[in-house]
């Protein structure tokens, strides 16, 4: 066995050992196919007010510019599909935000991963990423054969659907790359039909500026634009509609990471209680969770918007 194949097998084994469900590898290179797509997406202002998306264009498309000397992108999937979900009738929170902030949970695993690579393979340089720097995580996961990019813009694994966090190691170790798999969306249009805000007017292209995730989390204005009244379907933080309706998610299996479980305090928190919540109680409830990002003010803006519809 060549040293490249041996290292590739070792890296995969470490990924599964650390609890990642899937691991795929790509050669670090320029993302040729994505470049014109990204340019067009930005030119249509589908990123809304997320101006940070406009920066680092070169680094976004070429990991060697982000991590000089890098040779491989190791893409990793971690399941966050919950066993216990919120009940209907309460302001809805996207499943990824039920528990502790995934950045914290996953970063810890990634640092352990790098340490183990160095201990078992030798001096390897690189950086770890989880939804935090200009890395096109879905494009890399697709390229590495971890799934295809569905018409709803999500990465879909053929055995377990799309409720996964995606993370990467970009390292200067040469590994054997995997290849992409086929797109299995076929003639299905369920996600396009279900999106309440018309953020999916075109298959495979998400108009981020119309997406409920953007409106409830990224948009920092005092008000959500009134054209979205009656369209939020109770979503107060993020939106899972286009994933919930995807037939491939019937294969989702519950995760086993207690940090990601739905926090008790969120199970029965109704709109009135959200609006009456005091700062101290919110801090307790949202501590180290993605909800901290919106702050109490943002959550109450969102809940008020739901109530006004
Ligand atoms: S997350 Fe919700 S609003 Fe955004 S594209 Fe999917 S269904 Fe539409
Ligand atoms: S709902 Fe259908 S079209 Fe949309 S991503 Fe899933 S399989 Fe593809």
- Please give the number of β-strands: 8
Report on the biggest sheet: 4 strands, antiparallel
Give the spatial strand order of the biggest sheet. 1-2-7-4
Secondary-structure element order, as H and E?
HEHHHEEHEHEEEHHEHHHHH
- Overall outline: globular
Tally of contiguous helical segments: 13
Average residue-wise pLDDT: 96
Distance between the termini: 63 Å
Which segments are poorly predicted (pLDDT under 50) over 5 or more consecutive residues? none
The domain count comes to: 2
Heterogens: iron/sulfur cluster
List strands and helices in order, with pairings.
Elements: H1 3-17, E1 22-27, H2 34-43, H3 57-61, H4 63-66, E2 72-79, E3 92-93, H5 102-120, E4 126-129, H6 137-143, E5 148-149, E6 155-156, E7 164-171, H7 190-194, H8 212-218, E8 235-237, H9 241-244, H10 264-267, H11 271-276, H12 279-286, H13 295-307
Parallel strand pairs: 3-8
Antiparallel strand pairs: 1-2, 2-7, 4-7, 5-6
The structure holds iron/sulfur cluster (2 copies).
One iron/sulfur cluster binds next to α8 and α9.
Account of the protein in words:
- With 309 residues, the protein is an alpha+beta fold.
- It folds into two domains: 3-171, no CATH class; 190-250 and 263-307, no CATH class.
- Helices cover 35% and strands 11% of the residues.
- The chain contains 13 helices and eight strands.
- It has a four-stranded antiparallel β-sheet with strand order 1-2-7-4, sandwiched between helices. A two-stranded parallel ribbon has the order 3-8.
- Strand 5 (148-149) and strand 6 form a beta hairpin.
- The site of one iron/sulfur cluster has 12 residues, from helix 8 and helix 9.
- One iron/sulfur cluster binds at residues 152, 195, 197, 199-200, 206, 211-213, 239, 241-242.
